[in-house]
Amino acid sequence: MADSSSIDYSSIPLIALNFSLRKELGLHLNPRNTVAADWATLAEMMGFSYIEIKNYEKYDNPTAKILEDWQSRCPKATVGKLVSMLEEAERKDILTELASLIEKDCIAYLKRKEESPVQVPEVDSWTPDKNGITTKDDPMGNMPEMFDAFICYCQSDIEFVHEMIRQLEQTVYRLKLCVFDRDVLPGTCVWTVTSELIEMRCKRMVAVISDEYLDSEACDFQTKFALSLCPGAQKKRLIPVLYKPMKKPFPSILRFLTVCDYTRPCTQSWFWGRLARALSLP
């Protein structure tokens, strides 16, 4: 097992840094500061454009968001690179205060790698953390692609999903959606991959509700799995979207959730902004 003196931070992907550490970084970098470097300075060093940085201002925790996006788009996003950036930005105060947490997360990451079972070539034991499952994954599994939301839909509703992509990804919201037919590599186990994406890769799930949705086994599995991850919907993990009138009864397991309703003409003008805000929450 690695100890602090032997850690090569430049070889450890940013994904090794856990939620608690990212939260601590946010406490230091989120407040806009005219004296010390803040999250915007870090984002510029990571290569984000002026427009992208302005868009990040709408997030409650922009530091966490830029770290997430940086690790998704940059193969060289490592703990060592982040440490170098903070040093270059003259934020050694952060490194001093969080050194033990950084070390702890990196040691835990290395320990998990050491404990990973050795695969025998003759045995087919595919695991999503070892092989890429989305189009932008690192094939070695070191840089998993992350998303703001997994979109649960049936094929008959694909046109509305395309509109969702246009409204949420290609506008000022700049959200990142996981659309199975577009983002998942072929040849993988549907149920295993879906579970991995919903639980580990996506902050939330949007369920596109329709009469056809009710007849879909895949949608039924995805919805029940997402609900099981957050009993009582305390963290707004699942967001139902109704985009056209239904002939069948609305699914009973979703009746306790607030629905984002596109069928009402009087509320369509703020539909996308409301949905984007819900998906942008930490």
Structural topology:
Blueprint: H1 19-29, H2 39-46, H3 50-56, H4 62-73, H5 79-88, H6 92-115, E1 147-152, H7 158-168, E2 177-178, H8 180-183, H9 190-201, E3 202-209, H10 217-229, E4 238-242, E5 260-261, H11 271-280
Task: Summarize the structure in words.
The chain is built from eleven helices and five strands. 43% of the residues lie in helices and 8% in strands. It is globular and about 60 Å long. About 5% of the residues have low confidence. By secondary structure, the chain is of the alpha/beta class.
* Unreliable segments of 5+ consecutive residues: 117-130
Distance between the termini: 33 Å
User: Percent of residues in beta strands?
Assistant: 5-15%
Number of helices: 11
Percentage of residues in helical conformation: 40-55%
**Outline type:** globular
Largest sheet: 5 strands, parallel
Overall pLDDT: 85
- Order of secondary-structure elements: HHHHHHEHEHHEHEEH
Query: How are the strands of the largest sheet arranged?
Result: 2-1-3-4-5
Tally of extended strands?
Answer: 5
| Global Rg | 20 Å
Structural class: alpha/beta
